[in-house]
Write a structure and sequence with these properties.
343 residues; alpha/beta; Rossmann fold; 2 domains; seven-stranded parallel beta sheet; six-stranded parallel beta sheet; 37% helix; Glycosyltransferase involved in cell wall bisynthesis; Glyco_trans_1; glycosyltransferase activity; Glycosyltransferase_grp1; transferase
């Protein structure tokens, strides 16, 4: 099958550090290529892939100091896809849905994975205007605001089995990983660590739009709890893998309907249990009492941290291998592609 993967241009594929969507696009692209499909990746020039790479811009837009208007680069990307429309059986979009008008007029089957939160007031009118646009959700919970959209499947994210190594030892610290934003509730993570009496390592990116929140809300807490909290900034590569694998538990205290939560399966792959709030897709991703604990408040989270030692880290890894392998993710998407082509 001739498949195009169209990635957001904010980060490289895979990203150097933070970038969940770009990481998933990378895992999917490599798994499809390994399965024998002819895959073309439209992404940044600093991306790395076994597929054919069509570079749109030199580097991730969020890492290019000369870039201000990211939309212009994504418009160029759409033109590059359109120019090669006859080369593909299926074009799989992963970015913002401004490709809908173009995709419905070009001679290929197309699919859009919605990676973010869906809002009825915004996406509802969009999906009504484009009822024929085939969509994939990354969790069943994600589609709850708009259950009647043209959903073709729910495909949970996956990772290569060798992307992260299993760590049998239980570490002596808790970990907060991701972005420094209000919805991720880093303040909760700090409070949990303080009450649990354990060190907390925070490896989190601060986006430009979140600098004020970080300075006003998070930095005072970091200073007040400097004896137990270590802020590492954005972390990638081997350092990120070691941080996840050597943690006693990953804290995922989200305060919004998280569509998936890639860091949770990264923790499972490493054998690290997760303590997460019952929001969004968390109950779909975590197996309560096996790969972690799902909680409703800080008191329950502190109690869960005290109980993570009772969980079998090898069981966390086994659940990851059974449910979140990139090969399974690719097979799920191929089934959707075949359904589109059959129509």
């Amino acid at each position: 099958m001739r498949i195009a993967q169209v990635a957001p241009l904010y980060e490289s594929v895979p990203p150097r550090a933070y970038g969940a969507t770009e990481r998933v696009v990378s895992f999917l692209t490599e798994a499809l290529t390994h399965a024998g499909h002819r895959v073309t990746l439209f992404a940044t020039g600093d991306s790395t892939t076994a597929a054919e790479l069509v570079p749109i811009c030199p580097r991730g837009l969020w890492r290019d100091v000369d870039v201000w208007d990211t939309l212009t680069h994504h418009v160029r990307q759409l033109e590059a896809v359109a120019a090669r429309a006859a080369d593909f059986d299926v074009v799989h979009f992963h970015g913002d849905p401004f490709h809908f008008p173009l995709a419905r007029r070009l001679p290929f089957a197309h699919l859009t994975t919605m990676h973010g939160q869906l809002l009825a007031a915004d996406h509802g009118p969009l999906f009504e205007a484009f009822p024929d646009a085939p969509l994939v959700s990354i969790s069943d919970n994600q589609r709850r605001p708009l259950p009647h959209a043209n959903w073709r499947a729910t495909v949970h994210h996956g990772m290569p089995l060798d992307a992260l190594q299993f760590h049998a030892g239980r570490g002596d610290y808790l970990l907060f990983l991701g972005r420094m934003m209000g919805e991720k509730r880093p303040d909760r993570a700090i409070e949990i660590a303080r009450r649990a009496g354990l060190p907390l390592k925070m490896a989190a990116k601060v986006h430009p739009g979140e600098v004020e929140y970080f300075r006003n809300e998070v930095e005072p807490m970091l200073r007040a709890n400097a004896d137990i909290v270590e802020y590492l900034g954005e972390v990638g590569g081997a350092q990120r893998a070691a941080l996840i694998g050597n943690a006693r538990a990953l804290l995922f205290p989200v305060d919004w309907p998280e569509p998936f939560g890639m860091v949770m399966i990264e923790a499972m792959a490493s054998g690290t249990p997760v303590v997460a709030w019952r929001r969004g897709a968390v109950p779909e991703v975590l197996d309560e009492g096996e790969t972690g604990f799902i909680v409703e408040d800080v008191d329950a989270a502190v109690d869960a941290v005290a109980r993570v030692a009772s969980l079998d880290r090898r069981r966390c890894r086994a659940v990851f291998e059974r449910r979140f392998d990139a090969t399974r993710m690719a097979a799920d998407y191929v089934a959707v592609y075949e359904g589109l082509l059959a129509r």
